[in-house]
Amino acid sequence: MALQQRTESRNHRLTHKTMMINAYHSSIKIIGLIIFLSIAIFLSGCASISKGVTQALLEKAESEDTRICQVQGKPFAGIEPGLGKKEGETKVLMVHGVGDHIPGYSTEFLEKLAKALNLNSRSGDSKNITLAAPLFPDQSLGNLRITRLLNEDASKKLTFYELTWSEISRPEKALLAFDNSGEHEFRRARINSALKKFSNDTTPDPIIYLGKSRQLILAAFGQSFCWMATQYWQDLPKDGKHVCQGLGDEHIDKLSHDDYVVISHSLGSRITIDGFQRIADMLENPEKYFSLLPEDQQKLKTAASTKAMEVLRNKHIPVFMLSNQLPVLQLGRELPEVVGQEAAYCEPEGAHYNQRMLSETSIIAFSDPNDLLSYGISRGFSEKYLDSRLCPSITNVTINVAKIINAFDVQGLANPLEAHVGYTNDERVVALIANGIGNPNTSPLIKERCEFTKITK
After folding, report:
1. Which of 63, 65, 40, 64 has its CA nearest to residue 53?
2. Strand, helix or coil for residue 160
3. Are residues 157 and 46 in the same domain?
4. Which of 132, 143, 168, 142 is CA-nearest to residue 297?
5. Owning domain of residue 18
6. Which among 67, 93, 173, 383 is most buried, taking Cβ atoms within 10 Å?
7. How many domains does the chain have?
């Protein structure tokens, strides 16, 4: 009897131990599933996975939104103050990042921005210009989509320019078409196939940008800025392929009174800075660029007049960089021609003050710490890596755009895909772009949800 009890007790312990081992293995499998699904969500970009399977299996949302929003740097005004100006207009240029985009990709963000700015009216349909440039006469440089927003009595207006440059990188990505084709793709597991398609769409763009297509993409940016700086809504072509010829004396009034803003995402931020540096170099060394033109177009050498250049040098342009990648995209690159000379170019008493491109380029860099492809900018970065002729200043916005969730008693899990692409859907990001921070016009949402630390030189 005693032997039987001992045997049953031992069997019970063995059964319990087996159950514990099985439970442990199950836990390992669940943790592996969590990691795998997180990677799958990040790479595949599949909203149905993100909102369906993940939420059903993993998410345990916090009852209170405690996502951080910390702003460190100089105060900035946002877009709103310039909307009701008596002379000139406010013009915004949007530049996308990696991945294939088609015209209209910014529509959801534009609608949110319009709501934040109380612009509930539009001037007809959007206009679409197929971009071209004198230096690349046979090359299509993408699409510039222009939308004009107004309030009800038209006392406030905003012209929004959306640059789509994917047309430039798309032919080179065709090299990977076989990898995505039915002839080869069916050999992969279904989830791996989704991962590979996403990788093939996004990974090549930074590589392509480092090659021969870089000058084409920068020319697309330059043409977009040219159209923004030289034309008002009523003067822009409705469609078709067109070339903006440059900044002449006839554009001085627009340059003097208009406000310019740039909003970029990921690789688009590198394109924006490089684009401004290219414009600065073209203004200072026009012969380097226009000597490449045919003789019948040599007159374009004077397209940027001295008077127009002087007006541009007094402009202050804010650049809102979403999922900022400037540090990582600086790796292995050559430095700009003019660095470490901000005092010489940007201070009135500086030796090269009259050779600057802008009076100030305010970089407002947004980064989610859970965004694997986003980086903050150190205070010394601009002095060492940004063109001094831009007179850059940096404000860092550290913000959780992805929700922090708890899963199986493990705290601190965030969807890295949402952390990378969720900026334009975050109401705090939109409010910061619309009304800024550290000024009387700051929105109540930002005052409540964001911390601001003013940093002076």
Report:
1. 40
2. strand
3. no
4. 132
5. 1-58
6. 93
7. 2
